[in-house]
Design goal:
Rossmann fold; 12% strand; two-stranded antiparallel sheet; alpha/beta; 475 residues; 17 helices; 12 strands; 6-stranded mixed beta sheet
Length: 475
Amino acid sequence: MMAFFGFFAWIYLSPLNLFFGPWLGVFPPVPLLIVNTAIYVPLIAYTVRKWLRTMQKRKSGPAAGIDVVEPGKAKPEPGDEWGIAKREYSDSEKSQVIGSKSDIRHPPLDLEDTFFVKTPDLDAGEPIFEEEELKRRAMVRSRVTSGAWSRKNRSSRSVGSLQSPEIAQHGRSTRSRIPVGEIQSIDLPASVVAAVTRTGKFSDENHLKITESDLRERIFSGKTPLTILLVIDVSMSIKGSLKHIRKIIQRIEDETRGSKDRVGLIAFKDSGAIEVQAPTTNWNRLYRALLKLRISGLTPLAEGLMKSLQTVKRERMRNRGIQPLVVLLSDFAPNIPLEQSAGPGHPRYTPVRDIIKSTRILKKNDVPVVPINVNRRQAKWSSILKRPYHQALELATHLRMKKEGYSNAIETILSVPAFRKEFGAYLVAKIAGSRALLCSEVTRADSVIDTLLEAAANTPSIQVKNLKQADAYLK
């Protein structure tokens, strides 16, 4: 209403009327009316926009935050009648979807009662690997004796990739130390030397006595085998990322074939996940398993994580000393929840909350998870914030958390639709205590296995100076 009356006041009192038309207070001719209108419309639009921004930034005083534009029926709140509301506008209606497909208000299809009972059909869809290529690679004999198959040294073939603990019974003894806790392996020569040092010279009548304080244990240096579980997304959404998946798997093969590292394969799509190949050192079996992978259907990411936990538990029943490592290859765009989350009494559609739940269960069971995002377009975050992939996502989350006033990174990601859609890899890494990787970072690395182990062990933290630098850069 104010803009309407202001328009007529501008027409009659415009300074242009003094130079190109009649006197002030007289209706101008049509050409001058058009010029006045063209000037008034953007001017009033800018003024209103500027006023709204200024009022939204106010923390106190009349109409602070302009809490007068809430959708739906108008309901008075404390302070509205006096014009001193203290909070900014926020949508009070929560989304019916908590997931990466934030624009979907219902599941992408009506989930029937038998949907989760059906086993995913691995034979449906486009194959990830070409049959002729896998056959050619399967026929090649592993040149373990010469060490030419991979970049590993000849002396490191037939061993694992993970550095053993000092007290583990792997490798060769390098030194001794005073035992800490239960003694694993007694170093007899070092114990005798310690006893002689304590007692000094001894004769035939004065025999040497070794006490508990003289005991020393051996320290080993060696490598222990890994149990790598490749959890691969074979849904339709990764169709544009197949070459990255092929390259990563080929690099893992180059560094593990011929060693004692075992590799297993789990695929997930549609209603659940399937263990295509149990952990094995025989890559010919893995070739046959990879040949079964075909892309189609939906993305039950949480089911893939839970399936990997089942496999690890089974392997630990056979050998409690295994060192598992779950490598999750996906574009992290889940749209199917866990079966128990889609049952009766669970009206919310929660695929992203379910991957949080699944990752926490793996973390509780001491199963390290390294997420690899095969969507190459996610490199835009590294380009914008000038940081590696994980650090860029962490920095963006902390900046948004600071802006919105949240106290938790996970809460921030779930509250921002754009973050729910693109920050799935960081979400898994944050909970698992690892580092999210982009496919290009993995393929460029000198050693993929070393990169995965570093990502599983190291969690970078944001420093205050990085927040200040990025905040200034974005402004």
